[in-house]
Amino acid sequence: MAFCPCARREPGASLLGVVQPGGRVKFLPSGLIVDEATARLDRPSEVQFRYSSACREGSCLHWRARRCTALDEVRDHLAPFALTDIASCSIRPQCRWHFQAGDAACAVCPLVSGELMALEDGIAPPEEVLVPISIGRR
Ligand code: SF4
């Protein structure tokens, strides 16, 4: 099973990382699971946090031609800012983005704050976000 590294906050999702001041994500150890109570919090938290969950493949609007096109969009926008140090995260062996692009995905992934999904819900991204990205609904 592959994991989406930019999932919604929903029961069963894992807390993957925290967006630091400046916009870069600090990845966390595995094991922090979103429960029902956390998922129902009034204020969506995808802007400050990153979540992962099982890749939905054909059930996700980003899935086209057997690949995640959200990663393609992220790389298009963030390539000029790509990092040279590859951050360690908890899902690399099963990460959909890493399957598709290897370390090139990891070079831009920490620059992606959760506004990828939150923008779709009308939540304003923080000022620190380097490049706002608008993508379709899952
Ligand atoms: S750092 Fe790499 S392996 Fe980890 S979630 Fe991001 S793209 Fe996936």
Describe what this molecule looks like in 3D.
The chain is an alpha+beta fold and 138 residues long. It has one domain. Helix content is 20%, strand content 17%. It is built from 5 helices and 6 strands. The protein has a 4-stranded antiparallel beta sheet, with no helix packed on it. A hairpin with a 2-residue loop joins strand 5 (63-64) and strand 6. The chain is globular. It starts with a strand and ends in a 20-residue tail after the last helix. The model is unreliable at 121-138 (pLDDT under 50). Bound molecules: iron/sulfur cluster (SF4). The site of iron/sulfur cluster (SF4) has 11 residues, from helix 3 and helix 4. Iron/sulfur cluster binds next to helix 3 and helix 4.
Task: Indicate the topology.
Blueprint: E1 3-7, E2 14-19, E3 25-27, H1 36-39, E4 49-54, E5 63-64, E6 67-68, H2 69-78, H3 96-101, H4 103-106, H5 115-118
The structure holds iron/sulfur cluster.
